[in-house]
Amino acid sequence: MRIACPFCGERELGEFTYLGDAAPKRPSAFAADGAEQPDAQDLFFDYVYLRDNIAGDMDERWYHGGGCRSWLTVTRNTTTHEIKAVGAAPGAGAQKPAKAGATS
Amino acid sequence: MSGTRTGRISGDAAPLAFNDNPAADARQPRSVPAGTQSHRLSSGGQIDRKQPLGFTFDGKKMVGFAGDTLASALVANGVKLVGRSFKYHRPRGILTAGAEEPNALVELRSGARREPNTRATTAELYDGLAAQSQNRWPSLRHDVMAVNSLFSPIFVAGFYYKTFMWPAKLWEKLYEPAIRRAAGLGKASGEADPDHYEKAWAHCDVLVVGSGPAGLAAALAAGRAGARVILAEEDNRLGGRLLSENGEIDGKPLAEWLAGAQREIAALANIRVMTRTAVFGVYDGGTYGALERVNDHIAVPPAHQPRQRLWRIVARRAVVAAGAIERPLVFPGNDRPGVMMASAVRSYINRFAAMPGRRVALFTNNDDGWRTAEAVQRAGGTVAAVIDSRGVVPEGCRGLNLRLLGGVVSEVNGGVDGVRSIVVRDAGGRTQQIEADCLAMSGGWNPNVALSSFHRGRPVWRDDIAAFAPGQCPPGMVMVGAAGGDFSLAACLREGHAAGVDAAKDSGAKGKAGAAAQGEDEGFAIKPLWHVEGGKAFVDFQHDVTASDVKLAQREGFESVEHLKRYTTLGMATDQGKLSNVNGLALMAEATGRNIADTGTTIYRPPYAPVAIGALAGHHRDENFHAWRLTPSHHWAAARGAMFVDTGLWKRAQWYPIAGEKDWLESVTREVLAVRNGVGFCDVSTLGKVDVRGPDAGTFLDRLYINTFSSLAVGKARYGLMLREDGLVYDDGTTSRLAEDHYFLTTTTAKAGPAMQHLEYCRQVLWPELDVQLTSVTDQWAQFSIAGPNTRDLLKNLCDPAEDLSNEGFPFMGVREVSLRGGMRARLYRISFSGEMAFEIGVPARYGEAMAENLMRAGAEFGVTPYGTEALGVMRIEKGHVAGPELSGTTTADDLGLGKMMSKKKDYIGRAMAGREALVAPDRQVVVGIKPVNKANRLRSGAHVIPRGAAPGPDTDQGYLTSVCYSPMLGHWIALALVERGRERHGEIVRAYDPLRGEDMEVEITSPVFYDPEGGRQRG
If I label B301, which of B163, B281, B383, B664 is the partner at 20 to 30 A Cα–Cα? Predict the structure, then answer.
């Protein structure tokens, strides 16, 4: 299997590490107003343990540890291993969107 | 190989003569002893009669020619018997001329290079080749285990399962070894392989597998068009079946056309020809596995050259022209030496000028088999009879002067010296005996569908060819020619060309592919004949599976093809059923009343051809099994005679023995005492080191660790603990703040890689809004821990005198850059793992060795002692510091006594889940210290903690000893342990129970901090 890293080009599977489903979004232990999230444990339980077992196209997290150390979002068909799209994680790559007002 | 059938024999060719008197042939080299090669034709074939090659088979000296395989040389020498069968030890001869050979398996070479189960049909002959037959004792002709054959009625399918069931415990010790001895294949040498193997990658637009007419046509078309082509051929030369047949392409004899095609391919720089290269597997994304037998055709590989090379070929498109494999007929006596595939007889005659028999009978159910009768006659042999189960002469063969018998072969008479006669039975049951010394058989052709089926492609049954043709191929692959089920020469050339054109176009090549070559479009007619009743008729030659075994399997309920395979072992031998599978399926279909299409095939899996483990390992063996990482002071430590321990990929100095020390314990104890009473140093560069920079670095670390780093003052270090998102401890280490927006984070040695991945995940995926950058600097810094009461004195000798190293000028947990004597800058961290007054000093990695030498000089007057990981471990256990054995992936921060570090004011990885009921339960196992009641006793890590008087068992188990050492400061063994409710049980006497070593002793639960519990020494 080969993955076309958006930064390095097409590379062999051995350079990458698989993490899993890209869909779950990490909840926060605190609500937006700064108060503790009362159901934080339930939200995190879902986030940590509950995964869909998709037969078909799935967005997955892969890490290009043998290359540019970028986290990628790979759309892969889990039944054929066909890779349909490869994108970078929001914070991947040297060009990082600067926070409003930040100087760096 | 390709199953192409080629044009009619031209009538003007003079019959060839047998080489009955080799001396009479002027071209025969003098070195060849008279009387050898009794079955060699005096002319023709693609062998070089000027290059005789001596070889031995079971010690007997023989001679063949360059261009021979071991099998063809044996045929030329009149050898019929080459092996004994797996189960019944029946005498067996050469059956095929290719990779599908089930019988002629030999041990090749000797000593450490001995290689069992080598197919004589693919082993190229070289001068001095030594081959041994297998699975016979004391000799091939007189094999005592042939007595198994007398008991064959009881050695039926499933015999072993049924007979050796009870008592089960004898299976491993008695039955299996005995059965394996009796029913064995060759033996491996048992010595280390002296040869090299390597791995390589190749990339191309179009991979062409097989170089018969279809493969050549594809390679030529794609190559002319300008695509980058790899042409892989399992054989040592191009041509496939063209090498073994007669006929014409574009009006030229096959050999002439082939020579022209080869010249054109050689002239095209964009075609890479890889002979002796078998494509054995298809993997995701157009990656193909191939094995190149680089130096299997000579006795010993030349210096610095590999024996075999494992290729991973990445191809945009693949054209598979893997040909077809001729199918045996299943009739009584079909395994006698001298019974041979009809296509193999043609190969031996046409390619190797070796005559398998003088009077050849042919048994066929299809037109193609008849071509063997032509070949035998053309070579001057006698065709005793053609037995065609269809009872008709094919259109094109009417002109041949042959004796045709309609019916079947119902018996083969002969023994270890081959076939003597056959019995033919007609439709009315009348029999007649025919004298013959070779019986050629043809049951039709099976397209070689393996490569199309490795991605769960299911072959499709075709009645017109009575065979399975490829179903859905993996993406990017097409199968053409005989492999695709189209056997005629014209079809092979046409389909190969078209596939080459198409594949080249797909890869963007724009050149002209030229016209397809033209060959004869001969038909292929077959009427299946699956089984002739009347005696032991073999389906799987290598595993001795007979037609009646298949029927027995059906009677006993093993009707599914996967059950059939496992119950009878059909197709499970080293040939993987290349000859036997379809016959087995057909017999099962017959027995169950289903058709073959419904019966289906077993699942195909790579490798298609045997691949040695050595080739898969390549250079990754022995000391090169994995890469090594050497610490910056490694060579310095090695020169001092340090003992090293593998820690992940690292080699770390474990202790430094000095003359007169009797064991490791003495050395380690000396090192610990030297540190605690004076000063010592240890290379700790293996710890993971990460540079964290950016305005949001502090916020980032706050979210990562359970404790807070944004509040850490510049110039200070702090111990931090990370959890996994499930709430259990992930890793620990100290992190220093070097500037407002610059932290230096350390991880454990083991987690350096994974932690970096985790940090990047947090930064890139979880919190991309944070302005922070991470750089792994593990390899950039040589870092030494300097510990002991004289540490400051040593550092005064090392550092610029202007540096204030006093407690006020450089307090505990302080961090700053300092100047060394001579002006070099270094980072100094006042942190302690040993519990002593200690600093860590960091310099660029290339100065690591020099720093070790400088530390020795600077500390010489204080008796400075380098120490290894053992002493490091002893001192951390004495201090009750947790490490790998306690950070086991099952412990919480509180289990480790670090629960108070968990901030309540912020979110961090693992915060929510760490509060789960079971993770905060009061009866959790927590870290404690353990002392033996009898101070002379040695503690053992892994020993279980159970209450006094309790019977050991899961119900009474209360934890275990995680880290154990001999404490030089206490003068006895101590341990850290995880013990249920341990913190409230200090002072309690329990047992350390170690059933592995048969030990059971009383121990006391204590505080985990055995030494200097107030911590005054490290702050002093």
Answer: B281
